[in-house]
Structure formats: structure tokens, C-alpha cells
């Protein structure tokens, strides 16, 4: 019973925070500086790791499907396979997972420490709502940066697949036919589908990490506990939401 | 060089504070028990009491950071636990631990309030901030971050940050606890100036008897969450209540069994 109550309380407080932050949307133009700073922290600093990991994800996808397909004779479909899997599934999920680990943890740590050291209390007494100053710019920034991160993950993943497809002896498909195949079996709606998922995941991760950080109670030890909770909750939510959003986008 | 008498405050109506039968418990632990008092506009009220007697918790009720378990706290007749009260009455609390924004420079700590509430142009804000920093001898710390400051400097930044807010009600939680005697005198001067020139209401929690007796219009003493004394500072020289006398004039008794334990 206790864990269930805590989950419900968590959902409730997260939704409340969302409503409060959203109510300050008109203040966004004059918080432009904070928005840009968060775009930098959320987007720019996550790019290298997204690039490295998606390169290898694309490569291993090509390798596995080439290996499995070499006798059955579908290896000419590798381009489509890597292309669709990256765009519809692994690009957005990977970008969101890395966001949770790299950015979500940092957000939870920063807000938890502000809470523990009474900075959040100080903001409240100064009549500066934390939802406005601390949460809104981060939510806006993640919405702006997730598409960038996801498209980068897609492109780098396709590219990694193409290299493996060309240089692996049991596949050896040249990039021209790899990309021709990719283009033949997918269109922009597949990429768009992935971008919608990425926005949902990224927004959820940042919102949940903000909420867990701001609800930290107790001393400095609790900062670490909040970070762990934020990352674990984010990862669970990404995979659970992945299933439901995918199903919804299939019109099911 | 600005002195406390150059404080950059516009005249604003001072606020009153009323506590009616305030009780506060954390779980089953009662921190405040049936505390009633009122602070009139422009008054300097000093709250004293031993460590752990509930002074900080009492101040937090006034700015709405804690909700009463029973009773009522109001500021200018507005319920202090209502978040909109902060929009109606400008209150500043100098936190016991400073509560500075660790990711910002001292300058930005002070400038945050006027910037967020768009109270002045950036030059106007610069003026106010630099003046507050000078009064507290902090001009060389403007571009440092809190981690680079000493304990007393942090306390002074917290006071300067509260001054920039130009509050109608100033709450100080042990403002002089980490300061040298000269700086403590400056703080006393600031509190008195705010009253005389701008009619600001002040509540000061302190262990510093000189500060208390020097500036207070009235003094309250909390013991174990109960208000055991309320009156003018002159009444403190001959307190009727023996508990108050013990608190104000503690006897150091080296024969006390507690000290004996330390020796073995
Ligand atoms: N959030 C809280 N949860 C539980 N107990 C608390 C909380 N805040 C304060 N207390 C308890 O309330 C009592 C009074 O605390 P408070 O901070 O008001 O003391 P104080 O009079 O300001 O002491 P000091 O002079 O040492 O600052 C303490 O026993 C403290 O443990
Ligand atoms: Mg205290």
C-alpha cells in the first residue's frame, strides 16, 4: 500500500508543478537568457555522448541484421532496417536515456541542493516562484533541444550503419544502395513519429527530475538519494511511455 | 562612503505582525505552544531564547514557510500562510544560515529581487546594489560567489540582499552571530535607521544582549516554545520570572555534574 500511495503522490505533485510552470509561460520572453543557458546545458553538452552512442548503435544494428540476414537473403534491406529502427525507436529512446543520465541527474542534484540549503525558501520569501524561475526555462529548453538531439542520433546512427554495411565482408553493401534502400522504405513521417516520442520523453524526464529535486527534504545526504530516484524514475518512465506512445502513434 | 543613514529606501507603509495562539508541532514534537504577540508598525521587536526554543520556526511562520498547527499568524491583517500575502506585503527574511544563491555572484544575489520584479533599470539596480554592498563593507566581494566568502561575509551579504528588497517588514535570524563587534554595531545602526527614517518594522532574533538592549522597543523571550516574557528591555534588568533570570544570567558552575563527566 505504501509504495502505491507514494507513486500516486508523485504523480499528483508532478502534475501540479506542470500546471504551475505552464501558468508562467507568458514570462518566457523575459527569461530568454535562462532559456538559452538551459538550451546550452541540455542540448549542447549532451551532443557528444549522443553522437558516440548512436554511431555504435547504428553500427551494431547493421552488423546484427547483416549477420542474421546473410543466408536468408534480405541483407539488401539493411538500409531500411537501420533507418526505420533508428528513426522510430532507438534515436528517441537513446537521446532520452542519455538526457536522463546526463541532464536529469544534474537538474535533480542542483534543485535538491537549492532546496536543502534553503535557496528555494529564499526564492519563495522573495515572491519569486521556483516554478517560474527554475522549472519553466528548463521545460522550454528541453522541448527546443530534443528534436535536435534526436535528428542527430538518427543521422549518426544511419551513417554508422552505412560504414559497417560497406566494410563488413559478409555484408558489403555500398552506401549508395544502402541509402537508396533507406529512402525507399521510409519517409518523413517515420522521423516525425520519432520526434514526437522524443519530445514526450524529454519533457517528462525534465519535469520529473525538477519535481523530485524540489521535493527533497532533510539534509545533504538526501541530495544523492534524490538524484538516484530521479534517474531511476526517468528510465522507467521512458520505457513505459515508449510502449504507450508507440501504440498511440500507430493509431491503435 | 555611504553609511547606514544613506539606505536607499522609499517610504512605504510599515507592516504589522500578529500571532494569535500559534502552536506548531512536527509530528508529535511540539515546537511552539500557544504563542500570542503583536508587533506594531515601525516597532523593533527582539526575540530571544535558548537554542532550539523555536525562534527560527516562529520567523518562518511569518513569511509563510511554515504553516501553524493551530492558531493564526497575520501580517497587516493578511493570513501569513496564504501565498498571496507575499505579493501584498514586502517582507525580507535574513536566514540564520544566509541561504545565498550558491550559483550566483554576490552582485547577482542582490540584484535578483529587483530584476525579477522589474523595480528599476539595470543602472538603477546597480546603484541600489552597490550602495547596499558599501554599507556592509562588501564592495570588494561583489564578483565573488558565496563559496569564496567567510561565514561573516555570507551573513552580511544576506543582510545586504534583504536591504535591496526595500521591505516593509524585516526579519533577522541572528544577524550578528558571526560578526565582529564593529560590524555588529553597524547592523544595530542599520536596524535603528530603518526604523527612524523609513518606519520599517523589524523582528530580530538574537543571542546578543547588547544588540537586544540597544535597539529593542520590546523584547520577547521564548523558552521551550512558550513565550515567558514580553515587555520593554528595561524590565529585563529585574525579571520577575526566575526562568528568565536564569536564561539572562546563566551561572557557570564547574561543580555541575555535567562538567564532571567531561573530565573523566
Ligand atoms: N522541519 C523541521 N522538522 C522537525 N523538527 C524541526 C524542524 N524545524 C525545526 N525543528 C525543531 O524545532 C525546534 C526549534 O527549532 P528552531 O530552529 O526554531 O530553534 P531556534 O530557537 O532557532 O534555535 P537556534 O538558536 O539554535 O537557532 C528544534 O528542536 C528543532 O529540532
Ligand atoms: Mg534558529
Largest interface, Cβ cutoff 8 Å? A-B, 14 and 21 residues
Count the E strands of chain A: 0
Portion in beta strands of chain A: under 5%
Label the structural class of chain B: alpha/beta
The class by helix and strand makeup of chain A works out as mainly alpha
The tally of helices of chain A reads 9
Output the helix-strand order of chain A.
HHHHHHHHH
Kindly give the count of domains of chain A: 1
Number of strands of chain B: 10
Q: Low-confidence runs of chain A (pLDDT<50, min 5 residues)? A: none
Which shape of chain B, going by the Cα principal axes? globular
Oligomer: heterodimer
Bound ions, cofactors and other small molecules, one mention each: adenosine-5'-triphosphate, magnesium ion
What can be said about this structure in brief?
With 252 residues, chain A is mainly α. Chain A is 82% helix and 0% strand.
Notable features of this structure?
heterodimer, A: 252 residues, mainly alpha, elongated, B: 264 residues, alpha/beta, Rossmann fold, 2 domains, six-stranded mixed sheet, four-stranded antiparallel sheet, 10 strands, 34% helix, binds adenosine-5'-triphosphate, binds magnesium ion
SSE blueprint and pairings:
The complex is a heterodimer of chains A (252) and B (264).
Chain A: H1 2-23, H2 32-42, H3 47-69, H4 78-116, H5 119-125, H6 130-167, H7 175-185, H8 188-214, H9 221-249
Helix pairs in contact in A: 1-6, 1-8, 2-6, 3-4, 3-6, 4-6, 4-7, 4-8, 4-9, 6-8, 8-9
Chain B: E1 17-26, E2 29-39, E3 44-48, H1 55-62, E4 70-75, E5 78-79, H2 85-88, E6 91-94, H3 106-116, H4 122-135, H5 151-164, E7 169-173, H6 181-198, E8 201-205, H7 209-215, E9 218-223, E10 226-231, H8 242-248, H9 257-263
The structure holds adenosine-5'-triphosphate and magnesium ion.
Adenosine-5'-triphosphate binds next to helix 1 of chain B.
